[in-house]
UniProtKB/TrEMBL annotation:
The keyword Transmembrane applies. It comes from the Bacteria. InterPro entries: NqrB/RnfD. This is RnfABCDGE type electron transport complex subunit D. The chain crosses the membrane at residues 45-62, 74-94, 114-133, 191-212, 232-249, 261-279, 285-303. PANTHER family: ELECTRON TRANSPORT COMPLEX PROTEIN RNFD, NA(+)-TRANSLOCATING NADH-QUINONE REDUCTASE SUBUNIT B. Pfam families: NQR2_RnfD_RnfE (PF03116). One of its GO terms (biological process) is transmembrane transport.
Length: 313
């Protein structure tokens, strides 16, 4: 990317992060003993320092192994890691996940003329996921644990479904404002949409994959649930689906794909997000959807090219 494009991306995701941190702060503003100074010094600063420390450690380890690191990639992926990692994640785990994410992202293989690898941010979040697995329905009595605390609208809905209790409807204004606990990137929907417009106008992302991702989400939701439009809109605004649609669908893997396959990848991602939410044991399915969509798209592309090679005279 050109320096101008990198700057636009950094400013866009930084604005989303600032709004996300602000939304999380306001969600706990009524808690006893809660103050801005305590929030910044006790949560935000250690959280960001852990990501910086993990990034530096990964650079040192890779350098010892004779590999170099791209500075722009480190900064961009580091900010995405900050956006998709829950603020409540322990310091040591953030350091471990960030370090491991950057190292694991260097593991690649080629198939079908495409270099396959996991993005550093996805790899880091996957490490956090394995260390902090949300509890299943059987452990719903463990209120307060990750995944069943009801801290986010998706978690609250999952709990209601598990105990067969009517789910409350969240006002759209509340969903756009995003005043709840969780990962900074899943909170500020208004900021994400503004950032999406900026990135589209600057040519950093394409509109067609985003539309196909939304189509996959809406189509599968209507098939599985047949719900009303307001319920569908609430689901679109909950969780980190939109953040990933804007900031995470364009990566080294999708950059090698033809435009048509980029749309296929986005459609699969949107469809899987719904399936994981409805039938999966966890409240959120964005991470698993990103990984599974990349795997399925890679298999489709390799199969398609082999079929075309066989059919050619």
């Amino acid at each position: 990317m050109h320096k101008k494009h990198i700057l636009i991306f950094l400013l866009s995701i930084s604005a989303v992060l600032v709004c996300g941190f602000s939304g999380i702060y306001h969600s706990a503003a009524e808690s006893p003993g809660h103050s801005l100074l305590r929030y910044v010094s006790g949560q935000m600063v250690p959280f960001l320092c852990a990501i910086v420390l993990g990034t530096v450690l990964s650079v040192m380890i890779l350098r010892c192994a004779g590999m170099t690191s791209n500075r722009n990639n480190l900064i961009c992926c580091g900010l995405i890691i900050a956006a998709i990692t829950p603020l409540s994640t322990p310091f040591w785990l953030i350091v471990l996940a960030t370090t491991g994410g950057f190292i694991f992202s260097r593991m690649t293989f080629r198939a079908g003329g495409i270099t396959h690898s996991l993005n550093a941010a996805v790899s880091a979040r996957l490490i956090v996921f394995f260390f902090m697995l949300p509890h299943l329905v059987q452990g719903i009595n463990l209120a307060g644990t990750d995944g069943w605390s009801g801290a986010t609208p998706l978690q609250a809905r999952k709990i209601c479904q598990a105990i067969q209790h009517p789910c409350i409807a969240y006002p759209l204004s509340e969903l756009f404002a995003g005043h709840w606990n969780g990962a900074p990137g899943e909170v500020p929907k208004t900021a994400i949409m503004v950032a999406a417009i900026v990135l589209l106008l600057s040519g950093l992302i394409r509109l067609s994959p985003m539309l196909w991702g939304m189509l996959g989400f809406c189509l599968v939701w209507c098939i599985c649930k047949g719900g009303e439009a307001d319920v569908l809109l609430q689901q679109l605004l909950m969780g980190s689906f939109i953040f990933a649609l804007v900031f995470m669908l364009r990566n080294h893997f999708t950059g090698q794909l033809p435009v048509g396959y980029q749309c296929v990848h986005a459609f699969i991602y949107g469809a899987l997000c719904v399936l994981f939410r409805i039938y999966g044991p966890f409240a959120e399915g964005t991470l698993l959807s990103l990984i599974a969509a990349q795997l399925m798209t890679g298999v489709l592309l390799v199969s398609h090219r082999r079929i075309m090679r066989i059919s050619d005279p």
